[in-house]
Amino acid sequence: MTRRIHWSNWVGLAGLILLLVGSAVGLFVAPPERHMGDVQRIMYVHVPSAWVAMVCYTFALVCAIAFLLQRTERWDARMTGAIEVGVVLNALLLAQGMIWARATWGVWWDWDVRLTTSLVMLLLFAGILALRSFVEDPERRAVWSAVTTIVAFVDVPLVYFCVRWWRSLHQIQSTPDTVDPAMVVPLRLNAFAFLFLAIWMISRRADIERLIRRREHVSEPPPLAIEGGPHA
Amino acid sequence: MRPDPKGAGTVHQAWALIRKDLLLEWRGRSRFLSVVLFGVVTLLLFSFAVGPDSVALRAGAAGFLVLALLLSSTLSLAESFRLEQEQRALEGLMLLPVSGTALYYGKAIGSTLFLLLLAPILTPVGLVLYAVELEPLRLAGLMAVWLLAAAGLSAPGTLYAAMTSRLQSQDVLLPLLLFPLVVPVLMASVKAAALILSGDPMSQLTSWVALLIAFDVIYWTLCGLLFPHTIEEDL
Amino acid sequence: MPEGVIIGGWNYVIAAYSLTAVGLAAYAWSLAHRARRRADDER
User: Fold this and answer.
1) Is the dihedral of CA C29, C33, C36, C38 positive or negative?
2) Is the ipTM reported for this complex over the cut 0.90?
3) Which of the ends of chain A has fewer CB neighbours closer than 10 A, N or C?
4) Is residue A226 included in any domain, yes or no?
C-alpha cells in the first residue's frame, strides 16, 4: 500500500538540505568579517531564526483573525502550530544572541533593542501556549487564544519603540546591520532553510492539534436538546 | 445579548455597570483597603530590598511606585470578575440586555477608577519612604501619569481577567499574560514619573506620555472590540 | 565598535550552531513523538 507523501514533508526535506548547504557555506566558504572575525558567522543562523520567528508570529496573527471570522478548526490548528514554532525559534534566537553578546561584548546580556524585544515576545507568546493548556473547552480555547494572539502581536511594535527610546538615553552599541555581498549567499540560503523547516514544523504541529480536537469531540457528551426540541 | 446599534445605549449600560460596581466596592470597602495595604507593603519591601540608601531609593522611586501599582492591579483585576464568577452573576448579567461592549467598558473604567483611588495613598507613602521632595504642580503631573498607567493596565487587564476568572489557575495566568503585555506601560510611566520627580532636562516627558496615550488608545479600542468574542458562549 | 579582530571566536560559533541544531532536532523529534502518540490513541 503506497502512501502519498504530504507536500509539507518535501518542503521540510528541502529546508534541511538548504540548512546544511547554507551552514556549510557560512562556516567554511564565506569570508570572516572585518572587525568581528569568525564570530560573525553566528549571524548566519541568528538572523534567519529571527526573521522566520517573526514570520511565524505574523502567520499566527493571520490565522487568529481568520479563525475569528470563519470559526473553522483548521485556522486554530495552524495558529497553534505557528505560535509554538515561533516560540521555539524565538528561544533559539535568544540563545544565539546571548552567545553572540558574550563573544563580542563579554557579557551575556546587554539590553540590545532587538534582543530585549524578542525576550518580551517570547514571554508574550509562550503565555498564550500556557493559556491554552488550561482551557478545556476546545471552542473557548480557540477563541481565547485567537484574541490573545491579536492583542500580543499588536504589542510587539510598541515594545520595540519603547525599548529603543529607553536605550537611546543610555548609549549602547548595536548589532551591525550592513552585510558584505559575499555574506548574502549563506544568509539567503539559511533564510529559506529556516522558512521551509518552519513550514514543515507548523504543518506537523497543526496535524497534532487536529488529532487532539478529534479526540475531544469523541469524548464530549452529546449536546442537550435546546430550542425546538420536545421540551421547548 | 441583543446587538446595540445605538452607541448611546451602550454608554448608558456601561455607566449603570460602573455605578453598580462602585456601589458594591463601597459596601465592601474592606477589599479596597486591603489592596491599599498590599500596595503599602510592596513599597516597603522595595525599600528593604534596596537598603537604607536614600540615593538609590530616590533614583528608583518612580519604578517602585509603578511596580506597586502593577502588583496591586493584579489583585483588583482578578477580583473584578471573581465576584461575578463566584455568584454566577456573569450569566445573570448576560441575560440582561447588556451588550458585551458595555460590559467591557464598564468593567475597564471601574478598574481604572479603583487603581486611580490608590494613588492618593500610595504616592505620599512612596515619596516619604524614598525621600523625594515634590511641589504640588509636579504632584498633579504624577497623578496624570498614574491615571494613564492605570488605564493602560485596565484595558488589557479587564479582557484577561474576564477570561482567566473562568479558569482554575487564574492567579498565575492573569499576571503571566498581563505583565509582558504592559511592558510599554511600565517603561513609559516609570520614565515619565522619574522625569517629573527629578526634573526634565531634555524635555523627553512628552514622548513618554505620548507613548502611554498611544498604548491606551490602541488597547482601549482593540480590547473593546475583542471582548464580546471572549464571553460569547455565555450569550 | 571594537578596533581590531576578535580571535578565537570559533568556540562561540560552534556553540551557537550546535545549540541551534540540537534545538531544531529536539523539537522535530517531539513533533514526531506527539504525532505517533496521538495516532496510537486513535486505534
Assistant:
1) negative
2) no
3) N
4) no
Q: Delimit the domains of chain B by residue range.
A: 7-234
Q: How far is CA C37 from CA A73, A83, A186, C11, in A?
A: 21, 21, 37, 38
Sign of the C-alpha dihedral computed for residues A96, A97, A101 and A107 taken in this order: negative
Instruction: Determine the structural domain holding residue A103 and report its residue range.
Output: 7-29+40-172+183-212
Cβ pair A27, A19 in contact under 8 A? no
Question: Where along chain C do its domains lie?
Answer: 17-43
List chain A residues with CB under 8 Å of B167.
134-135
- DSSP H helix total and E strand total for chain B: 9, 0
CA distance A151 to chain B (A): 7
For residue B30, the distance in angstroms to the closest alpha carbon of chain A comes to 31
Q: Chain A contact for B187, CB < 8 A?
A: yes
**CA-CA distance, A97 to B120, in Å (whole number)?**
43
Question: Is B180 close to A127, i.e. CB distance below 8 A?
Answer: yes
Which residue is closest to A40 within chain C, CA to CA? Answer: C13
The angle subtended at Cα A192 by Cα A163 and Cα A29, nearest 5°, is: 95
Q: Is residue A12 part of a domain?
A: yes
Instruction: Say which of A127, A130, A151 has its CB closest to residue B222.
Output: A151
The predicted structure's pLDDT at residue B137: 85
B60 has a pLDDT exceeding 80: yes
Residues A39, C6: C-beta atoms closer than 8 Å: yes
What Rg do the C-alpha atoms of chain A give, in angstroms?
Answer: 21
Q: CA B209, CA B190: separation in Å to the nearest integer? A: 10
pLDDT, one tens digit per residue, over B106-161 is 999 999 999 999 999 999 999 999 988 888 888 999 999 999 999 999 999 999 99
pLDDT of residue A225: 53
Measured between beta carbons, which residues in chain A are less than 8 angstroms from residue B180?
120, 123-124, 127, 155
Query: What one-letter code names the amino acid at B184?
Result: P
Number of domains into which chain A is organized: 1
Answer whether A162 sits within 8 Å of B211, measured CB to CB: yes
For chain B, the farthest-separated pair of C-alpha atoms sits apart, in whole angstroms, at 59
Find cell 519612604 and name the residue. Answer: B129
